[in-house]
Design brief:
The complex is a heterodimer of chains A (271) and B (302). Chain A has 271 residues and is of the alpha/beta class. Chain A has helices at residues 9-12, 65-76, 109-115, 155-165, 209-213, and strands at residues 26-27, 32-33, 42-51, 81-85, 90-92, 99-100, 125-129, 132-133, 140-143, 146-149, 240-245, 252-257. The chains are: A alpha/beta (271), B mainly alpha (302).
Chain lengths: 271, 302
């Protein structure tokens, strides 16, 4: 889902000299991207909060959280990040926080109240498990105050939201998935459409831009006939041409989108 | 004054606009969906067309339980079906509500939209089927916690408005009671809501042996996690209040609902008979042996 771009920029940004092993080649099915963007800072502490349902049982089984972090880490290695759970899962006793609506609205006081349960001052990612975010429309959402994951969210959702926290944008294959004619990105992959990644490897003849977008971690919102969203895991080096929401805009426009390592602005962390 | 007149005109205009659309166009969103070119048939076709791909993804990736992250797309199709407000969607929604290989949240979404379009009677028919799904653990059954409250409220309203016949209510109550007595169900997730409904709509339930059996089972199922402890504290007084009633005064609902399973405290009927027969046979054998011994002694004496 489209990340909530209300970050507190410079203060959070850490120029990182990563001492960790950082793989420089990302092999996708059919071509190679060479991400040599800015490596991030290794281990990222994650504090976990789970909202309890009306019957008193947590909305997500606490013992499954380490597995979810492992799944996210299998994707996040490309950015040099490793999520590490900090402390036990904490339970939230407020059923008003099970279901959130209007989750992209910065004036959403209910979501803000939940995310204000604690303030990690940017030193940890605060992860909140809830039942729904805008019904079944949203699997996860990233606010400066923390990341909320719905019951339909998984490790892929978490990895995607963490990269939003680093400053990356969503990219879409279609203009409007809620229309029988969704108006997909047309045409083949070309140098202007992936300027920083062109020449990084072999691209199968006839590979379309739309197909390429379906491989990207920052692909937002699945679309029926396309490959499943969970299979979209790659971080390119630079921008990629596709549908995007311009800052503060509610309609999608075509353009080069910051979905790669070059778009990383800061280490993930919540406030 | 002018402002007031404008407000009245505005209100009339709003009223007329709302009457233009058969489903209350101001709030339903039906027109919006139709304007995008969707029809109910097309929405159903798209759902069925792409669900195969999503199910295949889950089968190939056993850890995935969310159709490869594509739930929002299918949720969007369901939202549009809800906005169309067409009761012809009920069979499709029923099928998706009971679809065991669909992610729980998507199934719950379909079930809630079904409830929004269906009558109380139709909800009373579907809910017992919903309660049979994902009964393995308290976690797998979690998907239906919000569904259950929607259905029970809908049925409750229908009863209050006399829209359900006594026969329908009785049948539904019987199925709900059977659910509470089923050993395969992690009932802690549903119990409180069902308990409150049955107290209201099933005479004698509040002091019944079945209610005690249900709560005893609930409390036995709880583990030692922090939330289990809270649940134990919350529900133990209910079990204690029924235990305080002398056993003879507790209602046995099997007289009204003969299909209910035996209670845990029941001595097995077959077992009693066997004990009685064994005791009789034993007694006969002892008497026979005693007679035989007496005869032998009498012969020796002769």
């Amino acid at each position: 889902m489209r990340g909530f771009a209300m970050f507190r920029g410079a203060a959070v940004f850490l120029a990182l000299a990563a001492n960790i092993a950082f793989r420089t080649d990302v092999t996708t099915a059919g071509h190679v991207l060479n991400p040599s963007g800015r490596p991030l800072g290794g281990a990222v502490p994650v504090t976990v909060w789970i909202v309890k349902k009306e019957d008193g049982v947590p909305i997500r089984e606490p013992s499954t959280v380490p597995g979810l972090l492992t799944d996210a880490n299998k994707i996040l290695w490309q950015s040099g990040l490793v999520l590490v759970q900090s402390g036990q899962c904490r339970l939230l006793n407020n059923t008003n926080w099970l279901h959130h609506t209007d989750v992209l609205n910065p004036a959403n006081t209910n979501l803000a109240a939940m995310l204000d349960t604690t303030n990690s001052m940017g030193n940890a990612v605060e992860l909140y498990f809830v039942e729904t975010l805008d019904g079944t429309d949203v699997a996860g959402v990233c606010w400066p105050k923390g990341i909320a994951i719905a019951a339909i969210g998984d490790g892929h959702t978490l990895a995607h939201e963490v990269m939003h926290d680093c400053g990356l944008e969503d990219i879409y294959t279609v203009e409007d998935p809620d229309a029988p004619d969704p108006n997909p990105v047309s045409g083949p992959v070309s140098e202007e459409r992936i300027p920083a990644d062109w020449g990084g490897g072999y691209y199968p003849p006839g590979l379309t831009q739309r197909e390429l977008i379906t491989r990207l971690l920052m692909r937002g919102g699945g679309f029926g006939p396309e490959p499943s969203l969970s299979g979209s895991i790659y971080l390119p080096r630079g921008t990629v041409y596709g549908w995007r929401y311009a800052e503060g805009d509610s309609v999608r426009t075509l353009g080069n989108v910051g979905v790669g390592l070059s778009a990383i602005r800061r280490n993930p962390g919540s406030y | 004054m002018t402002l007031r007149i404008h407000r009245i005109y505005g209100f009339i205009r709003l009223l007329l606009l709302s009457l233009m659309f058969p489903w209350g166009g101001l709030c339903g969103g039906r027109e919006e969906v139709l304007a995008k070119g969707w029809t109910l048939d097309l929405l159903i076709e798209r759902f069925n067309q792409y669900q195969g791909k999503a199910i295949t993804y889950d089968l190939k990736h056993p850890s995935s339980k969310n159709w490869g992250g594509d739930v929002p797309y299918f949720g969007m199709l369901l939202n549009n079906i809800e906005k169309l407000g067409d009761r012809a969607a009920l069979p499709f929604l029923e099928e998706k509500s009971l679809m065991t290989n669909a992610p729980g949240p998507l199934r719950a979404h379909a079930a809630k939209i079904y409830a929004s379009l269906a009558t109380g009677e139709e909800c009373a028919a579907l809910l017992p089927e919903i309660l049979k799904i994902d009964n393995q653990t308290v976690w797998t059954a979690g998907w239906r916690s919000s569904v259950l409250s929607v259905y029970l409220n809908k049925i409750d309203d229908a009863i209050a408005k006399n829209e359900l016949s006594d026969e329908t209510v009785n049948l539904f109550v019987g199925k709900l009671l059977a659910h509470t007595q089923s050993l395969s169900v992690p009932r802690v997730a549903d119990g409180d809501m069902i308990d409150r409904f049955l107290i209201q709509h099933c005479a004698g339930y509040a002091t019944s042996q079945q209610r005690l059996a249900m709560w005893t089972e609930y409390l036995d199922e709880l583990g030692d996690e922090s939330w289990d402890e809270e649940l134990r504290e919350k529900f133990t007084p209910i079990a204690e209040s029924i235990e305080a009633i002398p056993p003879r005064k507790r209602t046995d609902l099997r007289k009204r609902f003969p299909d209910l399973p035996p209670l845990p405290d029941d001595a097995p009927a077959g077992g009693c008979m066997k004990i009685a027969i064994a005791a009789t046979m034993g007694f006969v054998a002892v008497v026979a042996a005693w007679l035989a011994l007496r005869r032998r002694k009498a012969r020796k004496a002769a």
